[in-house]
Amino acid sequence: MVDTATMDVSANPQAKDRDRPSRQGGRGRSLRKPDQPWWFALPALAVFGVFFLLPNLLNFVYPFTDWSAFHPQIGFVGLSNFDAILHDGSLARDIRITVEYAVLVAVFQNGFGLALALLLERDTRFNRFFRAVFFLPVLISALAVGYIFRALLAQDGALNGVLSSLAGHPVDTPWLGSTTWTLLVVTLIHGWKWMGLAMLIYLAGLKSMPGDVLEAARIDGAGAWRTFWSIRFPLLAPAVTFNVTTALIGSMNTFDIVQATTAGGPGSETEVFNIYMFRIFGQGLYAQASAMSLVLFLIVVVLAVPVIVGLRRRENNQ
Amino acid sequence: MTAVTAFPPARRSPLRWAQPAAVLLVAAVTIGIPLWLVAVTSAKPQAEAIKPNLSLPHHVQAGENYRQAFDQGKVIQGFVNSLLVVVPSVVLVLLLGAGAAWVFARRTGRLAGTLYALSISGLLLPPAVITIVMELRQLGLAGTQLGMIAVYTGMYLSTSIFFMTGFIRNLPEELEEAARMDGAGPARVFFQVILPLLRPVIATATIMVMLFAWSDVFYAFFVLGGGDRATLPLNLYQVANAQLYLNNWHLIFAYVVMMSLPMVAVFVVAQRRVVAGITSGAVK
């Protein structure tokens, strides 16, 4: 909520400028009924309030109860749900894993997306075709993507098969079975699934660049590399903000890819918040799952929102 | 094309073959291999598919696999169920979002500002999925398509309100004034002036909501559960988890192909719109 004020900074001043003359010109109007009646906003506010805001408010209540599949009545129990997730180690572990996951996804999704955008920047028929090809993973459901890579990366799967024939001896790397590296592998898959969207947004950013600035740089003798780092990359700031924001928020809410590839394993080393909630909800421990959901909410407010506000500010300063 | 001429010719010639070659290589490895794996595995008998590899099937039984996945995975039912929740969600997100965005864009008071900020908070805040379940039970909407539509609409309204409000602020208010002078009431102004002008941003919102809602399995799991109302992704999850866990690669991938085709078809038909919609929304 904090950043919403900064998010529309770019649109606001123009809106105000345009408002002024029409306000003055139509002074008599204010006595008549308003031109944009509030009841146009009411249905949206009602649905959003009841099915988004209210659950998030209730999420400050249910974690402190004993709500579960085993209790007919709900009673307050204080902090015992938080005690439980703190003491079985899931709280600290899931916070660490979810934050690592989000950061790695942001890096990969943007790295792949920007690389593809630069590779396919020219508007040729060939490049347009391959932009569509790289967009395909965005269209495939995340669950399906997870299964594809589970088959590809299984110990007796396709990748080890290819590597075996290349190496001349059997390779059986447990790509999805390492307690250290599997998180990295899963975030690479997540980055792969969404790189097409990041690519499109970076392409749009590259296209909207003022030609005269680039021309001036060329005349000043800047090479392609120099032009990129000194001019083009800074001008991509809005695209970076959008891509990093969506990657962070999207990957903190991740579920399908992780569930389909590792289901949180091995040894809970890829258990992000939503996997925990899914698992514990399935066991009927609703209040405990809800406690984790509250922590996720707070993590986003405390960690992600400042990052996004900061990015937005950086962009406006340039 | 303009980008090419921006570089001196001397630089261009070594890159002329390097770029297409790099594109082909990257596409083959990152997109070609995974999709090839899906295609060949979906045509293999179970014994061959148990260890997924890139070789062509010795015995092609694509028809049999697809038929089996079609029946076991209840493709028709899943497809209809997906449509029944996704289409109303998209329509509501667009219509309710446009109404709210119009008010937020044109009214300048503190109340409008606060409500706008609140309405787009859903862009950042995670939906509280566990308490949504509780609330839906109390409202008698748990496990119903109406509940699912309400949840999707609530979740994605922020996106459409955000994009539409920004868009309407950049529309000249004179168009509305003119319609009002001609005696049009607010409803007429909204439906005949504002909504038609929103076409580009409607495309963006449609695509965003469709992309997310069509492939969602997480929220659908909590709200709809399995059973007769399961959507396509939920059915895929059940196919994959049925019997021997993940030994049915041939069926899983046949299902993946059938389930992905509608989205790919939408993309192929509306490609230009999709690209313009996504990019115009993101970078202004």
From TrEMBL, chain A:
Residues 1-32 are annotated as: Disordered. It is found in: Cell membrane. The chain crosses the membrane at residues 37-58, 101-120, 132-153, 181-204, 285-309. Keywords: Cell membrane, Membrane, Transmembrane, Transmembrane helix, Transport. Residues 95-307 form the ABC transmembrane type-1 domain. The keyword ATP-binding does not apply. Pfam families: BPD_transp_1 (PF00528). The keyword Transport applies. Its main location: membrane. InterPro entries: ABC_transporter_permease, MetI-like, MetI-like_sf. Coiled coil: none annotated. It is a multi-pass membrane protein. Belongs to the binding-protein-dependent transport system permease family. This is Raffinose/stachyose/melibiose transport system permease protein. It comes from Streptomyces achromogenes. The lineage of its organism: Bacteria, Bacillati, Actinomycetota, Actinomycetes, Kitasatosporales.
From TrEMBL, chain B:
Pfam families: BPD_transp_1. The chain crosses the membrane at residues 21-39, 83-103, 115-134, 146-168, 189-214, 249-270. CDD domains: TM_PBP2. InterPro entries: MetI-like, MetI-like_sf. Residues 79-270 form the ABC transmembrane type-1 domain. Belongs to the binding-protein-dependent transport system permease family. This is Raffinose/stachyose/melibiose transport system permease protein. It comes from Streptomyces achromogenes.
